[in-house]
Amino acid sequence: MTLLVISPDYASHLLPLATLATSWRDAGESVVVATGPATAGIVADFGFDRADLVLGRGSNPGVIRAEEQPPGEDAALRGFFAATRHGLVATLRYQAEARRDDLLWEPVARARAVLDVVDRVQPDQVLVDHLAFSARIGLAAAGVPYADVVLGHPSALPVGDEVYGYPSAWPAAFDPPEDDLAALHRLCCDVRDAFTTEWNAALRALSPGAAESADAFAEHGDLLMLNYPAPLHDPARTALLPPHAFLGSAVRAQPATDDVRDWLALDDDPVVYVSFGSFLSARGDVLATVLDALRPLGLRVAVASGSATGLPDVPSEWLVRPFLPQVALLDRAAVLITHGGNNSVTEALSAGVPMVVLPFSTDQFAGAAAIEAAGLGAALDPNAAAATELTAAVRAVLDGPAPQLARAIGAELRRAPGREVARAVLLG
Fold first, then answer.
1. What is the distance between the alpha carbons of residues 149 and 224, in angstroms, rounded to a whole number?
2. Which CATH class is domain 258-415?
3. What distances in angstroms separate CA 301 from CA 159, 230, 237, 324, one per listed residue?
4. pLDDT value of position 66
């Protein structure tokens, strides 16, 4: 039996997908990952075969830097980072305006490249990143069954009257003007319509006579898999989903490196782990505020600084590296300070770790709102929160009910790991 995994060339997408695929690998079955060259090392580390497949202009092997992107993509990335400095609406407007080129790049050529991979691999099952639209349109046009994996907040697949790109929820710390929200909603509707027109044109080119889509962002695979804990999802929204399975989380095995192991072994005091992920570590100004906020707490601090520059000096006993083994550190963390990316949120919850979330973009706002509503942490505006507010938020999370609630959901997620759920559901 052979499983084909199709992923964009981004570590943050490939890592959870590859983790799901380890259930097939450990059962002695073949796994082939179709992705680009930047993440070839990750595929090799998992022990999978790789088929070369480029699904977009950009790539990210683990920490993304604008200067390492191809011409055009570097400017887009810098524009995105600049937009995040102006808040929720400005960031979502920027992302909406760039969406068609980001998510449906060379759709006919990429779709045909995907079908070439399918012809070579002859898989028994296929797992596809939901955001790999060019890949999914090819599979749909050819009638190839596949499981569609949503790696972000479930609102990445709009249901009911939702419009892709318009946040389904946001934390109480954000209070965008109604006029700005209305303009954002109109823009997202316009982008949806233009994106759907392009989707339908590509679909006709690939499969003349195929039924057209009314909303390409709402298209999905034969089976929907959501890398998200069901208890954090609104039951009313769950009722609107197509056939689906909540995976809970897809936490990879990631042992500590020698230097991290030595640092953790120094004492048993609580650890604060800080990471803004592979993209948003570029917001070094916010990371600097976080570091200032942590000084008065007297806790051990580990910081994955990513691409951040200009950070202040920190106590010598803190652990600061561009990259840290996140899963290993979360196993010892008392609290996570995060941008609210889906990998970070689900990995923290699996480890039973509460959070202070500083969301910047896309579905991070809905994810942060869910964390706040479930009592699993606090959410603040990264552009507005002062160091003193962050200090108070960390104290409140550590001293309140969040640690106990997080431990409870962590125990539940560990009882049914996402990789095992995915295999069981896909095999029926």
1. 6
2. alpha beta
3. 40, 31, 38, 12
4. 47
Beta carbons within 8 Å of 116's beta carbon, 6+ residues apart: none
Give the number of other CB atoms < 10 A from CB of residue 68. 16
| Same fold across 2-250+417-427 and 258-415 | yes
Which pair of structure tokens corresponds to residue 393?
């938020």
Decide: 382 and 358 in contact? Cβ < 8 Å: yes
Separation in Å, CA 186 to CA 90, 101, 192, 262, 383: 14, 19, 10, 53, 25
Judge whether 91 and 360 are in contact, CB under 8 Å. Answer: yes
What secondary structure does DSSP assign to 113-135, as a single string?
A: HHHHHHHHH--SEEEEETT-HHH
79 vs 409: CA distance, rounded Å? 37
Answer left, alpha or beta for residue 185, where phi above 0 means left and psi between -120 and 50 means alpha.
alpha
CA 255 to chain centre: 21
User: With a cut of 70, which residues of the chain have pLDDT below it?
Assistant: 59-74, 100-101
The dihedrals phi and psi of 398, each to the nearest 5 degrees, come to -65, -35
Which tens digit of pLDDT belongs to each residue from 367-377?
A: 999 999 999 99
Q: What does the alpha-carbon distance between residue 145 and residue 91 come to, in Å, rounded to a whole number?
A: 35
Structure tokens at 24: 């097939």
- Of 308, 318, 232, 310, give the one whose Cα is nearest residue 275: 308
Q: Which amino acid is present at 181?
A: L
Instruction: Give yes or no for a contact between 383 and 286, defined as CB atoms under 8 angstroms apart.
Output: yes
What is the domain partition of the chain in residue ranges?
A: 2-250+417-427, 258-415
pLDDT at 14: 95
Q: Quote the Cα angle for 351-356-360, to 5°.
A: 110
H or E, element range at 319: strand 319-321
Where do the H-state alpha helices sit in 54-206?
Answer: 73-84, 88-103, 107-121, 133-142, 178-206
Name the strand (E) or helix (H) holding 15: helix 11-26
User: Right CATH number for 2-250+417-427 from 3.40.50.10950, 3.20.20.140, 3.30.70.240, 3.40.50.2000?
Assistant: 3.40.50.2000
Cβ–Cβ under 8 Å, residues 55 and 128: no
- Are the CB atoms for 190 and 99 separated by under 8 Å? no
DSSP states of 288-354 as a string?
A: HHHHHHHGGGT-EEEEE-TT--SPPP--TTSEEESS--HHHHHTTEEEEEE---HHHHHHHHHTT--
